[in-house]
Write a structure and sequence with these properties.
This protein is 23% helix and 22% strand. It has 614 residues and is an alpha/beta fold. The strands form six sheets. It has an eight-stranded parallel barrel. A six-stranded antiparallel beta sheet has the order 19-20-21-26-23-24. Strands 1-3-6-5 form a four-stranded antiparallel beta sheet, with helices on one face. α7 packs parallel to α8, α10 runs antiparallel to α11 and α12 packs parallel to α14. The relative contact order is 0.09.
């Protein structure tokens, strides 16, 4: 009802005699809350020639701190002080040359916000979804009149396929059944672009869900439903760039709202100049200020108004929808200092919240630079809690295919990499993953026989330090090679569309190998959920001996010891070197359920996996 009243008031304000010349087309954010730790609110107003002579508000407990008139007269920025503001409805009044506009605005009671902002950590497992490719729960939104890219074409890898928020909500029980604890969604905000809008990374409206995915209300309802089932929701955000169809690119507010806004300059895609002490100014500028693509202009986060706009937007979504985490796309491509300020602002409002930045670099040193309290970055500090362990992903794509030796093959390479964790400020806050929407899937082609590679990789992923992420479809062995294009990496989940010949959401829709893979992942995930040894425990490992890698997770008096045979041969493992992590003469092995004696040696099958609980 409140929304209807506001709409009527706004309509009357625009239709009243004498104010036809002042029309506000955009008000962002559309509303805010009282009781925020930071009492300052930026309101961006956009309309034809609204840079007015006089601005006021109808409330006595709201103070205008600053009115910013940008170079473009179609913009007006207000900075309000809400430190003494109670929840209320008030008006923003614009006057110019005898004309007046009235913009209704609401400050909501923060106590009415949905519960959320729980954060995620190493006790969780994230399940990554590209919404357009997961499930079409509402076919009526496949075509939205007026949008630049129309309809769906599931035969075209780069077209929209029709997946949506309702499709995700319809499968919340599937996530719970599988055993994941959090769902990470690729971007859901509006991407009204002429082509390629399915992936979501060219945002044209930061404050609204793309209507082909659903509505803001539907998203908030889905988050609440997920919370009701014990699932967390992580939202993808992009501060480095927007889509070229965004209103503030098509009608630029000022000369410094974007980087290189007068001429397209592509980024080098090399972000090491952010940390390189030998860097040239040319390389850093091209890296950070260059555009990701010609359709994704690069926002200038050094502009204080742009920075505040982006920071507020993320806080708005947390408060409005109750999301539990954010994954920040292309984190090192944006301004370091502004992104650090953003991380601090979010944590100030939501101390338990977590943010993971996409830190796609080839070395652990490069990745470690971006983590909060990094020794490598000191005295600078990104304040980014979680970074993505891309170097480990690169290793995992090949080590399970190799014969392990003691130095530089197979799991010996994993040992060597993990032995360098000293470069990380907090190894437990690394996002670890086999693949995602930008990489080849763990299987480039679907396996046709045994699942040794899959099982060893999953056992390792779900027991190593850090926060695991599973890419949708890994549980049913979905395969794709990046050489075939990004669209192939983001194939539809079978059964997500009415009329699909196969429904892999159900046991009946999985072939024998998929059934085995699903059951194996499910067993590990169910065991991992709530397991403090894995979620909080220390990590200790041994140099691989005779092709066998052994490591321990320990928390309090409990421990888990993982033994991986990284060879295609049977092995007899002497237990003498491992006595410090074998506190008893026997243990129950998780996968088989058998009780195993631990006196002098162990017999291991080729590519064997033992998970011993003490």
């Amino acid at each position: 009802m409140k929304k209807i009243i506001v709409a009527i008031v706004l309509s009357l304000a625009f239709s009243m005699p004498g104010i036809a010349g002042l029309k506000v087309q955009k008000t962002e954010p559309a509303f805010w809350w009282s009781g925020m730790r930071n009492p300052e609110l930026q309101i961006l107003l956009y309309g034809t020639d609204i840079s007015t002579d006089n601005v006021s508000v109808s409330s006595s407990d709201i103070r205008i701190k600053e009115v910013v008139r940008l170079e473009n007269p179609n913009y007006l920025l207000l900075y309000l002080d809400l430190s003494e503001t109670a929840p209320q409805q008030f008006n923003i009044l614009l006057k110019k040359n005898g004309e007046e506009a009235v913009i209704p605005y609401q400050i909501k009671d923060r106590k009415e916000s949905p519960e959320g902002a729980k954060g995620f950590d190493a006790s969780d497992v994230l399940y990554l979804i590209m919404p357009d490719r997961f499930s079409n729960g509402n076919p009526t939104n496949d075509r939205v009149a007026g949008m630049l890219e129309q309809g769906v074409n599931r035969k075209e890898p780069f077209a929209r396929h029709g997946g949506d928020i309702k499709g995700i909500e319809n499968h919340l029980d599937y996530f719970s059944e599988l055993g994941v604890t959090a769902v990470w969604l690729n971007p859901i905000q509006e991407n009204d672009m002429p082509e390629g809008s399915y992936h979501g990374y060219a945002i044209t409206d930061y404050y609204n869900v793309d209507p082909r995915l659903g509505s803001n209300d539907e998203f908030r309802q889905m988050v609440a439903a997920a919370h009701g089932k014990g699932l967390k929701i992580v939202m993808d955000m992009i501060f480095n760039h927007c889509g070229s169809e965004h209103f503030f690119f098509k009608d630029k507010p000022s000369a410094d709202w974007f980087n290189f806004q007068d001429h397209y300059t592509q980024t080098s895609y090399q972000t090491m100049p952010q940390m390189d002490v030998h860097r040239s100014d040319y390389d850093k500028t091209k890296s950070v200020d260059g555009w990701f693509t010609e359709s994704m202009p690069d926002l200038n986060q050094r502009n204080r108004h742009v920075a505040t706009y982006l920071i507020q937007n993320s806080i708005w979504w947390i408060e409005y929808a109750g999301i539990d985490g954010i994954r920040q796309d292309t984190h090192p491509y944006a301004d370091f200092d502004m992104m650090a300020r953003w991380c601090r602002a979010v944590k100030a409002e939501y101390p338990d919240f977590n943010i993971v930045g996409e830190t796609w670099l080839g070395s652990n040193v490069g990745v470690s630079f971006w983590q909060k309290d990094s020794k490598v970055a000191y005295p600078r500090n990104s304040y980014l809690p979680t970074v993505m362990d891309f170097p480990l992903t690169n290793l995992m794509s090949s080590v399970f295919d190799e014969e392990t030796n003691g130095w530089d093959k197979g799991l010996a390479r994993v040992y060597d990499y993990l032995s360098q964790d000293i470069v990380y400020a907090d190894p437990m806050n690394l996002l670890v993953f086999l693949d995602n929407h930008d990489t080849s899937r763990f299987y480039k082609t679907k396996p046709s026989d045994n699942l040794n590679r899959y099982k060893q990789a999953l056992a390792f992923l779900l027991t190593v330090r850090g926060i695991p992420q599973i890419y949708y479809g890994t549980e049913i062995l979905m395969a794709a090679d990046k050489a075939d294009g990004d669209g192939a990496l983001r194939n539809d989940f079978p059964g997500g569309w009415q009329g699909d010949a196969v429904d892999a959401f159900t046991p009946a829709g999985r072939d024998p190998l998929q059934t085995e893979a699903f059951a194996y992942m499910q067993k590990l995930l169910k065991w991992r959920a709530g397991n403090e040894v894995i979620g909080k425990g220390s990590f200790k490992h041994f140099i691989p001996q005779d092709g066998v890698y052994v490591y321990e997770r320990k928390y309090g008096s409990r421990s888990v010891v993982v033994i991986l045979n990284g060879t295609d041969e049977k092995k007899t493992l002497s237990l003498a070197p491992y006595k410090e992590v074998l506190p008893s003469a026997s243990a129950v092995e998780l996968l088989s359920g058998n009780k195993i004696g631990l006196t002098s040696s162990l017999s291991l099958q080729a590519r064997d996996i033992l998970i011993l609980e003490f």
